[in-house]
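Appendix B, record 7
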Amino acid sequence: MKKICLYCFLFLVCNIVFSQTAETKQQYLGVLTLTQKYQTDANWTEQDGKIVMDHFQRLQRLAKEGVIILAGRTQLESNDPDMMGLIIIAATTKEEAEKIMHEDPAVINKIMHAKVLPFDVAVQQELLTSPEDN
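Structure tokens (predicted):
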């Protein structure tokens, strides 16, 4: 029990120490859900598809810039209530993360709703590299 308390204390201290810097980027979870209209496949137009492609290309660009840590979606049907996209954003403030989400073409064009929540990755798998990368 003492070990568990010690680990929790050390984790808390590390979080406090590393969050002291003014410019430290925090992590935020962006949640995207389809608006009611787009939960029915028959309502999608070719133009809507182009907007979603712009959305995807923007996510790729932001990932290359280091703004987005990862992005993905649940592999469910459009009408499934658990269908959503998740984005982990590195930003200095929640307002900055919200701005990133609300400037998304799919959000601007009312294809998706966006929500931002404070988030911290606690455990992360190390990325595997190929022998050629060493």
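Remarks on this record: Residues 46-64 form the longest helix (19 residues). The helical segments are 2-18, 46-64, 94-102, 105-108.
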